[in-house]
Design a protein that fits this description.
This protein is of the alpha+beta class and 89 residues long. It is 33% helix and 40% strand.
């Protein structure tokens, strides 16, 4: 399974858009432990955005995925995660 969020604009707009994209209306929950990783990543994104100057324009892109070495047996779990938060201009 995999997930992603992306937004750009002023900090508060981006915070709201990330929450919207991660909401149950827009995104299905992931399997565990990927859902726990996703929720932690969303918390990190929000904390980082909260620390930005509110007038700043930022771009956020985050994604993650989980797989298994043996998908049928659900063994050998692996996760990938990428978070980028970049001021624009």
């Amino acid at each position: 399974m995999s997930w992603s969020v992306a937004a750009s604009g002023q900090v508060e707009e981006v915070r709201k858009e990330v929450v919207r994209q991660a909401s149950p209306e827009c995104a299905s929950p992931c399997l565990e432990p990927e859902e726990t990783v996703r929720q932690a990543a969303l918390k990190v994104i929000d904390t980082a955005l909260e620390a930005q100057d509110p007038a700043m324009v930022v771009k956020v892109a985050a994604n993650g995925s989980m797989g298994y070495k043996d998908w049928q047996a659900k063994t050998g779990c692996n996760n990938s995660l990428s978070i980028t938060i970049a001021p624009q201009g």
